[in-house]
């Protein structure tokens, strides 16, 4: 189960235990590269073969029909639809605050400079399927794309052996107002939208989580299209002081570890008594968890309780980990916030558990993993727009500055650059 480390005495052992990286073995790389090349070369024919091979069916159409979406809606629990609708309103409202505006400003001599913000034309949003379906991921990917103004939003999610995409995913798509849903997954789905086929459009960007084959395929096609990130296993850090509720802490660690045996769940506390209480509570409650075996494996491989000398050191350890999710079960969470520099999302106080953010609050749950919160950000509207610089120089300003610009080019040995300016100066 959870091992307790003393940060002051066991730093090297702790860092070795917590070491994480995104790596792909040679076998996975070969499979993915072969699939990408095959789909690029043979298009729809390759897609049908891979859908049959990996999903057990070769559907008549790659897209979900309007009738299938309507049937899923009619069969859905009205309460579930209401929750999806409210969650989507929250997510969309949050992302509206992220919108950047184009700007222009004028300098002397009629020089106008600026930046224009425009949405991408088309995106593909990947929604995992198979053993589990994630309508929450669909909402989190669609909302910022819609707020950004993307015109073409394509969804894809693996179908089952009967050729059906999860009803929950289809209902979420209808809530989000997306009608184009494809029914395939895996590396072949990434390939289809990165290169285009007879039936599948090439897009500008691919976002959304997936298994290691999807993650590696996204990495391989980067440059042909843009991508959001290479997602690794999920992770949470809970900082708890002596007043924290051990049951809350243990359950939040469970919630992360039930995702995947590779998920990381870490508690940091300055109280040895709290460390023991959390460990005891976790051992007491784990038998009641439906995914107890997964949680135990994750705890054994990637779980830890870390005892620090004080809360300043707790912040230091958290910044070193740079977690995807960071929960603050402390008395003065807002006072601690300035010391926490690296995290995908920070959950403030006992009643702001990660589950609230995963499904409902509004901020995006697509977050940087594996310590990449040091330099990456959550999925946002900014992922679905691009920025274009605008430069309007006047003859007066070029006359005033042109020779200095040309000399700058001379120093770089770029004659044509310099002459392009001097030719204009001669006309002035």
From TrEMBL:
Family: Belongs to the histidinol dehydrogenase family.
Reactions it catalyzes: L-histidinol + 2 NAD(+) + H2O = L-histidine + 2 NADH + 3 H(+)
Family matches, as InterPro entries: Ald_DH/histidinol_DH (IPR016161), Histidinol_DH_CS (IPR001692), Histidinol_DH_monofunct (IPR022695), Hstdl_DH (IPR012131)
Molecular function terms from GO: histidinol dehydrogenase activity
Lineage of producing organism: Bacteria, Pseudomonadati, Chlorobiota, Chlorobiia, Chlorobiales
EC id: 1.1.1.23
UniProt protein name: Histidinol dehydrogenase
Record function comment: Catalyzes the sequential NAD-dependent oxidations of L-histidinol to L-histidinaldehyde and then to L-histidine.
Keyword terms: Amino-acid biosynthesis, Histidine biosynthesis, Metal-binding, NAD, Oxidoreductase, Zinc
Residues annotated for NAD(+) binding in this entry: 126, 188, 211
UniProt-annotated catalytic positions: 324-325
Sequence positions that bind substrate: 234, 256, 259, 325, 358, 412, 417
Family annotation (CDD domains): Histidinol_dh
EC class (word): oxidoreductase
KW Lipid biosynthesis (keyword) present: no
Metabolic or biological pathway: Amino-acid biosynthesis; L-histidine biosynthesis; L-histidine from 5-phospho-alpha-D-ribose 1-diphosphate: step 9/9
Cofactor note: Binds 1 zinc ion per subunit.
Required co-factors: Zn(2+)
Binding, Zn(2+): 256, 259, 358, 417
UniProt-listed HAMAP family: HisD
NCBIfam families: hisD (TIGR00069)
